[in-house]
Fold:
Amino acid sequence: MADQPNNTPSLMPLPSPSSDSADEGPVQLKGIRFLDTTDSFKNDGEITTSFENGGYEPEPMPPTDAKSQQRSMKKEADPLVKGSNGDAARSRTSSYGAVPENAGDPVEVTIKDGKDKSDEKPPLPPVGLCQMFRYATIGDVFLMMLGTIFSIVHGAGWPAVNFIFGGMTDTMVGSGVNTTGLNVTNGSYLPEFEDKMNNTSLYYVYVACGVLVAAYCQTSFWQWTCERQIYRMRKKFFESLLRQTIGWYDHHQSGELTTRLADDLERVREGMGEKVAMLTQMLAAFATGFGMAFYKNWSMTLVMMAMTPLLIIGGAAISIAVSKLAKKEQEIYASAGAVAEEVLSCAKTVMSFNGQLKEVLRYDKALIGAQKAGVRKGLLTGGSLAFTFMVLYGSYALAFWYGAKLVGDGGISPGDVFTVFFCVMIGSFSLGNMAPSVTAVSTARGAAAKVFEVIDNIPEIDSTSTQGTWLQDLRGDIKFSGVSFAYPTRPDVPVLKDVSLEVKSGQKVAIVGSSGCGKSTIVNLILRFYDPLAGKIYIDGSEVKSLCLRWLRQNIGVVSQEPVLFGCSIADNIRMGRENVTMEEIEAVAKLANAHNFVSKLPAKYSTIVGERGAQLSGGQKQRIAIARALIRNPKILLLDEATSALDSESESAVQSALEEASKGRTTIIIAHRLSTIRNADFIIALDKGEVAEVGSHEELMEREGVYHQLVTLQNFKDEATGAVEEFVNPTLAMKRQASVKSTEGDSKNEKEVDEDVPIPPYCRILSLNKPEVHLILLGTLGTILVGAAMPAFSVVFSQIIYIFRDFEMSKNRPTLDREAIFWSMMYLVLGGATALGNMTSLGMFSVSGERMTRRLRLAAFKNILRQDLEYFEDPKHSTGALTTKLATEASLVRAATGIRIATVLQACVTMSAGLVIAFVYGWKLAFAILACVPIMALAGTVHMKVLSGNQKRDSQLLEDAGKTAGEAIENIRTVVALAREDKFYRDYCERLIAPHRESTKQAQIYGIAWGLSQSITFFMYAGAFRFGAWLIVQGEMNPEDVYRVIFAIAFSALAVGQGMSFLPDFSKAKLAAGHIFNILDRKPKIDSYSENGQMIHDVKGDISFQRVFFSYPRRQEVTVMKGINLDIPHGQTLALVGPSGCGKSTVVSLLQRLYDISDGEITIDGVDIRHLNVHWLRSLISVVSQEPILFNCSIEENVKYGVDDLSTVNHDDVIAVCKQANIHEFVMSLPKRYETLVGEKGTQLSGGQKQRLAIARALLRRPRILLLDEATSALDTESEKLVQAALDVAREGRTCIVVAHRLSTIQNADVIAVVEDGCIVEMGSHQELLNRKGAYFSLINGQRNIVT
Structure:
């Protein structure tokens, strides 16, 4: 008999006993508790911990009720929240809802995805099939044509070979050999029989060779041209991303775009290579199968076609449903991944506010939806296979019953029955087997629509265009004429209103005003990030729109309020300003920016890697590198948007002098809150609510006593010692800063994520992960046993059909033929029912068990990751990308090593055992001969299914470097386009695509060979087996039906085992994934925020003491940050920490929260070492406002409530009260959605000052005993700062407060001021005392005053 492609009747693959999952509700958690490093899993998401088996479960977190002083503080006594009382508790429904300690009900959690549903666009229609190949060259078209021809030959070859099988069957049936051996009706027939079998075997060899060549060419040609086109498409798509406008990026999150670059293009690749070849092959097999069947016998063909519509309609409907569920599951998992990425990238904020439980609930909410979709998909897949097998075996029964009738009537030979039967079944199954290919092509068309939408979007502001005017001698005259503007994301909120201003060449102009008045918008418009809605902007008399944009930006130097550095060396970051500069030039500008000294102290100096977004440098260090980057361009126009806001006084003085020198001969626009830095400007423009309020020099504006005069007056600093009034400075910082001392020693090479070396866990421990689902696994295993026995049983029934035909040819007994035909046809129905039941049971049960375990593992891993201390997240091996990847992939891989593996192995054992028993019973010699081919057959089945299911993961590692380059450029697109460095990132991306492209091209040939061998090996085996069987028949050792029985028992079983095993992912990967999961689950941090151990002081006052504290950051043990610091802060007092950037001020804040443990000495609260206190309780006492506050992608109200452990204790009025005190309420009320407004990814939809005010409101709502303010008002304008500072002064009453500040005027009323230098306290006292000493503090004051002069 001829072999068939894919799931043909004789070679039906065993469906995967794996898949999808359980339909259960959300995990009901009251908190989180870890009792040990090894765990066991209970069912339905309820978790306990024990040592035996390495599971994990969430349990209650440390209580925060009566034992916590936070709870004991009376709400009505708090100065921050007015009108709050016990009956004001609102519903606990929130996307950040936590469960009160005494709550017994599960928490309802509302997940918001950060998108406004009303703004969603309708889905794009998929592109046409031919449009997908728009990047094909003539060579690609030639390859596709050849591949299509060979696909047709390959597809037509399968039905055609059934003619050989039919002729061979007639030869066997008509051989005249009876059941006792070598008694023949005509002895002269034996030589003729052998000749025919020789020819038949040769025909099989010829077909095998043809299939080998055709299958290789089909796959290799299509995959080769696919890789070539995808290579061009990737480059074109990234090039198009780089040219889009900033307004376009405002509507597209960076994560969405990087996903398109990786995932959508991968879907396109899947659907335009081998899947198109497979689709063509299946169409050819369908057409030739039915054509040949009609040619042989039209009536039997029509009878068999009665079942075909059921297969087609049912298969198509189920395929569509499964595809939709799979898409939904992936979308939900993507949203869960977005939650994980956001939380892990903001781990420090989550720790500070005890937000772990809130985030676990939010993550689990997303996982529940994916689990339900996965379960439904698995159950539907199991049902679809059951339906398919019932229809399939029904077709067998109908075909052989009707075929026997035709044979009895003399209208057809037995060989023709089998020829028609298999031709129709190949045609039908080819049509059904198109579904995966059609789905892949359809998915590719949909993904291509998204990709091509970006590629075809020609932006109005094209940053890569070389069109436009290039001014020969740029002077730098800038003019705004009646400019009005609103950001695309908020078109109903005007930012600039009829602004007109003019800056002459070489002038230095300052723009001042309150936060959000439009200062930075002017910089954005000069860079042409946006075009104004009304009015015009001119440079040297030419409208900006008429100038070559690339040339324009190359002539502008920018230092923004939020400087972004790239993940390369310091030298390469400076080179971003201008390529082909020498190290001497780099060092020269670094000296001008006052960066050379600190860079020279690093072990790798200018080769030091700065980390992602410059995370390994302090805020001041990043800003100095950014200044050097701007200065090395030698620009004609210099835009300084709070360029020195993150610098200490000494550095600022030096850098300010350098900027003064650099601005000579250049048009310079300065945006500043620190008004003393711009008093020497040629003229000053004061903005108020988007309008030009007044223009003039410092003296002129002071005389007018208008807006500018008011701003200056608010910044006046009164020297208590002399009574003199001095202008004071405002260090506005809006860029995320690690602790100041985190200057990395770097590395001369790019830092790559290093995979952790984890031990492979014992297999019994891996199995224990599925222990809660053992009853489901047992049921599923019973189903796989049924499926495993189906193929050997099929060979018995099939050979028996041949026997009744041969018996009829010899006896011509029609009643016996009819009776036997009905009986064995019914046996097919019995087989069909058993196979359907087995598939439904196995797939259904393993879907439920697998999805339950996957969700549980993901949730457990996420919880334990959030349990870790800050040192864990600073390890490069635990970057946000590495951890989110583990969460997304490892749990799914582990599933392949548990219940499904046992079932798959058991199924293979049952199939092979039954097949071998049948084979050896009916012909042991032939069985031994065929067994030699079994390993090859099993391998062929595995390779066969692997190619069908795709091999898309093979080059993911090679694409990782290219993806990192693209991701960095997209995430920091504003900096990239401001520097006009699109071409550099494009070149880097293209260079990193070369290696994966070459590898994919090579793999196309390898997979072509593998596919050809997998398709042809069966024919070679049949050729040898049937020839040897014919010899045994001639020798009288076997009957024809026994030859069929032995051959098909082993061949079917081997292929079934190979195909079944191919559904099982690489077991070594599964074991490694389990090792990674256990490594996460078993890790106990040194500082355990989930631990219930530790004291909780009953009536905490807030006395803080540092006694001889020494400290080094864990990643830089050789650098001592704190050198024996001693501090005593009585409760209710305020300590201010001042000193130069990098001296260790922020480290004090981190240590008090116990984000790290000290190396020596002790830190106490109320006399108790904080290492003896419960970590969760300790952090619940403290509120922090950091220098760069982190907001989450949810509503404003949810962000403000984030710091509250028990949401039932606060209501909306409380949120309004603290927002008013933080001077943010009026701004919020001006927004269309008010407190429901989404703030965007990390608060990107808000300005720096707006984010900081929300962070202050968040801290105030928490009502802490200890308040830590690390440059808490640095990003605020003067007016806002004055109001917020007053609120903070009230908030400090009755609380212990530590303030870190560069702006010394904000801390002159502190009870104690400590000056920190190089990790030591050099002097301490009140403001007046320190001034009188004329020491370090006095020098800092003078340093700030000298900036003015």
Q: What stands out?
A: DSSP finds 43 helices and 24 strands in the chain. The radius of gyration is 38 Å. The CA atoms of residues 748 and 774 lie 52 Å apart.
